[in-house]
Write a structure and sequence with these properties.
The complex is a heterodimer.
Chain A (H helix, E strand, L loop, with lengths): L1 H8 L3 H4 L3 H24 L8 H24 L3 H18 L6 H19 L1 H24 L2 H6 L2 H4 L8 H8 L8 H21 L6 H23 L3 H34 L6 H36 L3 H21 L11
Chain B lengths: L2 H8 L14 E5 L5 E5 L3 H37 L1 H27 L7 H6 L1 E5 L7 H9 L1 H18 L5 H14 L11 H6 L1 E5 L30 H4 L4 H13 L2 H15 L8 H20 L14
Antiparallel strand pairs in B: 1-2, 3-4
Classes of the chains: A mainly alpha, B mainly alpha.
Chain lengths: 348, 313
C-alpha cells in the first residue's frame, strides 16, 4: 500500500519522528488521505471520477481509518490527527451506509410488495379508519334525514353549489349527467390530484398528535359525503349519484382510507408503544407509513385522471359502476396479494 | 477513557475551530461495531438551514411561476387553449413537487442534506447507525406539511381574509410553536419527522489533516538558533495534563509571537527554569514534545491526566 511506499522512500521525517504516536500517524496518513479523496468525490456526486479500484478499496480504507482512530484515541494526544480521523471516519461511514439504492430500484421494491405489505401490516388501523369513515357517512345521512336544515349547517354553500335539499330533481340530475363538453380536463385532473394528495398527506401527518386530528378530519369529510348522498337519494337519484361518485371515488376514498389508517397507525404507536421504546416503535411505524403514503400519492394521481376524464366522458350509470368496480377490485387484489410470497426476502 | 478526561479535552475547540459540547456528543455504533462520536446539530444550524431552504423554495416558486406564465402566454398565442392547459398542468405538478419533494429529493442524495443543510455543515443520518433508507427520508419530510406549510398557509390566509385574525392566528401560532419547539424538548433535538423516521441531524465537519506540530530538531530538544539543549526532568514535565498540552498545541499552531512569549514565560515560572528570551518557539516545541511523550507513555498503561488540576500520575 501507499503507506509502505512512503516508509521505504525514506522521506526522512518518518524515521526521524521522535514520538511513537507521530510515527504511527506518518506510517498511515497516506491511506487516510486516499480515503479522504474517495469520500470527497462521492460526496460531490462525482462517482465517475473514481476508478473501480478506488471503489473496491473504499471499505478496506474505511476500516483502516476506523482502527487507526481507535488506536489513536488510546495512545495519541495529537489532537489534530484525532479530530481529523473522527471527521474522516464519520464521512466515510456515511458514504458507505448512506442512501445508495437508486430511485428505480426503490420503485421496483415499492411496487413489488413494499407498499402492499406495509398496508397489510396496518390492517387493524385500516379497519379502524374504515369504521370511522362509514360511521361518519351514516351520521351525515341520518342528520339530514332527521332534519334537512342540518344540511346547511354541515355543508358550506360554496361546496354545495346549489346541490341542497331544496334543489329540484332536474338541477341535481344536471350536475351528474351531461358535462362531457367541459373544457380543460387535464388542468382539472392536475388540480384535483395536487389538492387531494395534499389533503391526504395532511390527514396522515396530523396522526402524529396521537391520531386525534386525523380521525376528526376523516369524520368531517365523510359526514359531508353522507349528507350529500341523502340529498340525491331523497330525489330518487341515489344510485346515479353513487355511480357518478364511484368512478373515481372507489380509488379516491380508498386512498383517503389508507392515509387516515397510516395516520392512526402513527398516532396509536405514539400513544401506546407497548413493550418496546416509543422511539423505536415510532421509527418503524413511520417507515411503514412512508410506503403507504407514497402509494396514496400514486392513487390520487389515478383518481384525478379518472375524475377529470372518465367521469365526464362516461355518462351512464352501469358503465360508471363498472369502471369504479374494476378499480376497486384491482386495488383490493393488488394490496391484498402483492408481495405476499416474498416476505421471507430480508430487506437490507 | 474515563469521563473526566473526555469532558476536559472536549472543552477545547477542535481543529475546525468549533467547541465540542459534551452534552451534544453521541456515540454512534456502526454495524462493524466501531463507536464514532457524532455531534448533534445545534438548533442555530438547524434554524439557519431551514431559513435558507425556505428562501430557496419561495424563490423557485416565484421564478418557476413567472417562467411558466411567460411560456403560457407565448404558446397560447400560437397553439390555442390546449397548450395553455398544458402549462396549468405543469404548474400544479411543479408546485406539488416543490412543496412535498424538495427536502426529500436532496436528502436522498449522497450528502443527505438540502442546500441549506450543506451550507450549515449538517446532514441527516439514521439514529440506529444503519443505512439511511428512502422510506425514512420520505417519512421525516411528510410531517413537514403540518410542521411548516400548514401553519404558514393558515396564517397567510387569515391575514388575507382579515377575519378571525384574533383567535385563528393565535391558534396557528400555537400550532407552529408546538412543532417548531419540539426539538428543544428532547435531548437529541429531534423534530416530529425525525421521531417517526428514526433519523437525526448531525454535524459533518470537514477537517483537514494538519501537519505535525513539532517535527524538526527542536522536537529533539535541540535549538537550531542557539544550539541550546532543552531537556526536562519528569518533575518538570509533571506539572501539566492533557488540557494544557492541547492548549500548547493550539498556541504552536497559531504561531503568534506574543502568545509564544507569554506561554513560555508561564511555563518557565511554573517549572522554575530560566530559558532566556528570543528562542521561545524552540523551547515550547521541545517542551510540547517531551510532555506529550511522557503523557502518552503513561497513557499506554491506561493512566491519563486530564489537566493540571488532576492528581499526578
Amino acid at each position: 500500500m501507499s503507506s509502505r511506499n512512503a516508509f521505504l522512500s525514506g522521506e526522512g521525517q518518518l524515521l526521524d519522528a521522535v514520538l511513537r504516536s507521530d510515527r504511527f500517524r506518518l506510517e498511515r496518513e497516506a491511506d487516510w488521505q486516499e480515503l479522504e479523496r474517495i469520500v470527497s468525490a462521492l460526496e460531490k456526486g462525482q462517482r465517475r471520477k473514481l476508478s473501480a479500484d478506488d471503489l473496491s478499496a473504499l471499505p478496506t480504507l474505511y476500516r483502516t481509518a476506523a482502527s487507526s482512530l481507535s488506536i489513536a484515541r488510546e495512545s495519541s494526544l495529537d489532537r489534530s490527527a484525532i479530530d481529523y480521523l473522527e471527521s474522516l471516519t464519520l464521512r466515510a461511514y456515511l458514504m458507505i451506509y448512506g442512501t445508495r439504492t437508486s430511485f428505480w430500484r426503490w420503485l421496483g421494491d415499492f411496487l413489488g410488495g413494499g407498499w402492499s405489505r406495509a398496508v397489510r401490516a396496518m390492517a387493524f388501523d385500516m379497519l379502524a379508519a374504515f369504521l370511522i369513515m362509514a360511521g361518519a357517512a351514516l351520521v351525515g345521512w341520518l342528520l339530514v334525514d332527521s332534519d334537512p336544515a342540518w344540511f346547511h349547517r354541515l355543508v358550506p354553500a360554496e361546496m354545495a353549489q346549489g346541490r341542497d335539499p331544496d334543489a329540484s330533481v332536474e338541477t341535481l340530475r344536471s350536475t351528474i349527467f351531461g358535462n362531457q363538453d367541459q373544457q380543460g380536463k387535464g388542468a382539472f385532473a392536475a388540480m384535483l390530484f395536487s389538492n387531494n394528495a395534499q389533503v391526504s398527506i395532511l390527514a396522515f401527518a396530523l396522526g402524529f398528535c396521537f391520531g386525534v386530528p386525523t380521525i376528526l378530519l376523516l369524520i368531517h369529510n365523510m359526514v359531508l359525503l353522507g349528507a350529500m348522498l341523502h340529498v340525491f337519494a331523497s330525489k330518487g337519484l341515489g344510485v346515479d349519484f353513487a355511480a357518478w361518485l364511484s368512478i373515481h371515488g372507489t380509488t379516491e376514498l380508498l386512498a383517503i382510507l389508507l392515509a387516515g389508517g397510516a395516520g392512526i397507525h402513527i398516532g396509536r404507536v405514539m400513544a401506546f408503544p407497548g413493550q418496546r421504546a416509543v422511539m423505536d416503535m415510532a421509527a418503524e411505524a413511520g417507515r411503514r407509513a412512508a410506503f403507504v403514503m407514497a402509494g396514496v400519492v400514486l392513487m390520487m394521481m389515478v383518481a384525478g385522471v379518472l375524475e377529470a376524464y372518465f367521469r365526464q366522458i362516461i355518462n351512464d350509470t352501469p358503465t360508471r359502476f363498472l369502471i369504479g368496480g374494476i378499480m376497486l377490485t384491482f386495488w383490493a387484489l393488488y394490496l391484498g396479494l402483492a408481495g405476499r410470497w416474498r416476505v421471507a426476502e430480508a430487506r437490507p | 477513557m474515563n469521563t473526566a478526561t473526555n469532558a476536559a479535552t472536549s472543552r477545547i475547540a477542535d481543529v475546525a475551530g468549533r467547541v465540542r459540547d459534551p452534552t451534544k456528543t453521541r456515540n454512534l455504533v456502526t454495524p462493524e461495531g466501531i463507536a464514532l462520536s457524532v455531534q448533534i446539530a445545534s438548533s442555530g444550524a438547524r434554524a439557519g438551514a431551514l431559513t435558507i431552504d425556505i428562501i430557496i423554495i419561495v424563490l423557485t416558486l416565484i421564478f418557476g411561476t413567472i417562467f411558466l406564465g411567460v411560456l403560457g402566454f407565448q404558446v397560447t398565442g400560437d397553439e390555442g387553449e390546449s397548450a395553455g392547459i398544458g402549462i396549468v398542468i405543469l404548474w400544479f405538478i411543479f408546485v406539488f413537487l416543490l412543496r412535498n419533494f424538495y427536502f426529500t429529493a436532496f436528502e436522498l442524495s449522497p450528502r443527505g442534506a438540502t442546500w441549506g443543510k450543506r451550507m450549515m455543515g449538517i446532514r441527516v443520518a439514521a439514529r440506529d447507525g444503519g443505512r439511511l433508507t428512502t422510506e425514512a427520508v420520505i417519512a421525516r419530510n411528510l410531517l413537514r406539511d403540518v410542521e411548516l406549510f400548514l401553519p404558514l398557509m393558515f396564517m397567510m390566509s387569515n391575514a388575507m381574509l382579515g377575519e378571525g385574525a384574533g383567535w385563528g392566528a393565535a391558534a396557528g401560532m400555537a400550532w407552529i410553536a408546538i412543532f417548531l419547539f419540539l426539538p428543544f424538548f428532547n435531548k437529541d433535538r429531534l423534530r416530529g419527522g425525525d421521531m417517526i423516521a428514526g433519523t437525526w441531524v448531525i454535524e459533518t465537519p470537514r477537517i483537514k489533516l494538519a501537519s505535525l506540530v513539532a517535527d524538526g530538531e527542536a522536537a529533539r530538544g535541540i535549538s537550531t538558533a542557539t544550539g541550546a539543549r532543552y531537556e526536562f526532568t519528569a518533575a518538570e514535565l509533571g506539572h501539566y495534563g492533557e488540557y494544557e498540552l492541547q492548549t500548547l498545541e493550539k498556541v504552536l499552531r497559531q504561531n503568534e509571537e506574543a502568545a509564544l512569549v507569554s506561554v513560555a514565560e508561564a511555563i518557565c515560572t511554573k517549572i522554575g527554569w530560566n530559558a532566556g528570551t528570543g528562542d521561545e518557539r524552540a523551547f515550547l516545541e521541545a517542551y510540547y514534545t517531551q510532555l506529550r511523550a511522557s503523557l502518552e507513555a503513561k497513557m499506554r498503561f491506561g493512566k491519563r491526566r486530564a489537566s493540571k488540576f488532576d492528581q499526578q500520575i
